[in-house]
Amino acid sequence: MIRSHCLIVAGILLVLIASSGCIATDENTRLNLTFFDVGQGDSCLLQVDGKTILVDAGPYEAGPKIAEWLKARNISYLDVVIATHPHSDHIGGMPAVLRQVKTGVFIDSGDTHTTPSYEVLLKTIEKYQIPYRVVHEGDQIDSGPGVNIRVLNPDTTVSGDLNDNSIVLEITSGSRKFLLMGDAGISVEERLLKEGTDLRADLLKVGHHGSRHSSGRRFIEAVSPEIAIISLTAGNEYGYPQKDPIRYLTDAGSRIYRTDQKGTITVTADQKGLVVNAEMIPKSAPK
Question: Is the domain 2-9+33-277 a CATH 3.40.50.150 member?
Answer without folding.
Answer: no
